[in-house]
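Predicting holo structure, L-homoserine bound.
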Amino acid sequence: MKNIAILGFGVVGQGVAELLTKNAAEVKRLVGDDLYIKYILDLRDFPESPFADRVVHDYAVIAKDTAVDAVIEVMGGSHPAFEFTMQALAAGKHVITSNKQVVAEYGAEMLAEAKKNGVCYHFEASVGGGIPVLMPIIEILRHNKVREVRGILNGTTNYILTKMFTFGDSFEASLADAQEKGYAERNPDADILGVDACRKIAILGALVSGASIDPDRIHTEGITAIRAQDVAVANKNHMAIKLLGRALCEEDGKVMLMVAPFLIDADAPLGGVHGVYNAVEVIADPVDNVMFYGRGAGAGPTASAVVGDLCRCFTEGTHTAPIRFEKEPERLSDFARFTAQHYIATDAAIEAVQAAFGSVTVLSEGEELAVLTDPINEADFEACAQKLIASGAKVLSHLRKLS
Ligand code: HSE
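Done. Tokens:
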């Protein structure tokens, strides 16, 4: 029998316990042994839960129990998740997590500690919920030359944008609905300001480039500035607006990382990803475009990824491909060099826009003018926008377009 401890008995922790109970036969067939939940660490008690007798409030009980084989850290946040993980790894216990914050911030340290102690640190559930995406990148696609990995990495914002696009719902009503369904983070700012997606692209970026970049240094925009008028212009031009995380591997070995809302052609692969669904597109040579799609949040999907990792600890041990996930801050490319077509909505006349930006494509005219510029980099866009503003005009909205 293998003994498991679950740290955190929230939506994901309870999902893991339920999965291990309901699918015990499938798990046993795979692992060749019973998996027993020996401890659940939480500040709260759960008197109604079938696991009430396993709840402990002191991590030391778990840390010092040499019979615990694996720890599932689903507490969220970096502290004390990082310290608990390091203690467990040092004590020779496998650790599995869905906690993207701690992976994005301390992945390099925890992977090194796992290696040192001959145990596993797995984090498939930290990106894309139930979608198996990290393993394919680590194992199956690693001989490819990756040019970009990009994706819809946050279910809550995709749900909100889908409701705004499809039903004309307000931002606030759509967010409340997402929270009610358990998709949103405890503090929804992490979703709507792009912070959650930023942590996930930091992880994906590290896996494809080998460079782990501090999430605080990644250019990050959320969806709060998107207006009903922008949605209408996009719809009219057969485009969607999606919050994308993008990691572009550049020829000079640097990696360009960002999170921002992008206009996307509605029939592009990512343009058709709706609701709480996530998708990750890997563009690499010679495989070309590969897309992974599924539920990016929720108890069942996230627990599926966690338990998949847990089983791998016992079936594969550490015989998986080594992950390069090194702190290499100098590998982050300067966002000012990022080149794209830019969308602006403005109260200016077309002549003023052309005087500032040169040739543009008009998407909509009326009370306000919406245009797409030719491809320009961020620094040049900023200079052109300042020129337009200096002419007395307002930039009412700004997005980039995925080419
Ligand atoms: N709040 C996150 C989301 C949960 O909406 O995608 C999964 O990381």
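The longest strand covers residues 239-249.
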